[in-house]
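Whiteboard transcription, Tuesday session. T.W. wrote the structure tokens on the left side:
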């Protein structure tokens, strides 16, 4: 008769149980969660990446999806059902045109300095505009440039990506779409050929590396 042993306290739970744990973590978290954060919460030996892969497949085609936000993960309503979540609200804080243009420039040219933002816009950027975007957690300080004065750079945040349902800055729309929406004017970017103005910004991958 074969003797059965109780599972070790250090043995990882079955993958189905790990999947449930990941689901519970994402459901309860108000913010996207990284794999590293999941790993610290789950029992020793768990593989949150594998559990997450199973969970994503299970939610495929459902009303809720498991989506990547930057380097983190979250549960979000399926895009085609977003209309069900809409309701009339009073907008407490509306971005000025200067703030919208500044945010767009940072998103498409990050990491970018204040001087570079002003060069692209053609006008000075007020401290209040930068402060507003920082307070909204849509931008943050990036690395300092290794140039005279070591100016600070700005980059967009995971909160910005989450707000607009983007996995990364590479998923941003092209320049033509932004201009059609009135977020940028029709002036070509400094140093760019007019032919390049029609190119999709997403192809300029080097702009998004910090």
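and on the right, the sequence the group agreed on:
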């Amino acid at each position: 008769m074969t003797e059965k042993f109780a599972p070790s306290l250090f043995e990882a739970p079955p993958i189905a149980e790990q999947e449930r744990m990941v689901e519970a973590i994402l459901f309860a978290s108000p913010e996207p969660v990284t794999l590293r954060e999941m790993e610290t919460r789950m029992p020793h030996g768990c593989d949150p990446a594998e559990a997450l892969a199973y969970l994503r497949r299970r939610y495929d085609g459902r009303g809720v999806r498991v989506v990547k936000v930057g380097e983190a993960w979250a549960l979000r309503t399926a895009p085609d059902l977003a209309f069900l979540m809409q309701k009339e609200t009073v907008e407490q804080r509306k971005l000025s045109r200067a703030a919208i243009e500044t945010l767009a420039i940072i998103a498409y040219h990050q990491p970018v300095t204040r001087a570079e933002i002003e060069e692209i816009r053609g006008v000075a950027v007020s401290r209040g505009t930068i402060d507003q975007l920082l307070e909204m957690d849509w931008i943050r300080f990036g690395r300092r440039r290794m140039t005279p004065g070591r100016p600070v750079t700005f980059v967009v945040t995971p909160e910005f990506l989450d707000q607009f349902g983007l996995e990364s800055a590479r998923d941003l729309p092209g320049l033509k779409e932004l201009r059609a929406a009135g977020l940028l004017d029709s002036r070509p970017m400094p140093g760019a050929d007019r032919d390049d103005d029609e190119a999709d910004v997403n192809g300029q991958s080097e702009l998004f590396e910090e």
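Someone added at the bottom: The chain has two domains: 15-79, 97-208.
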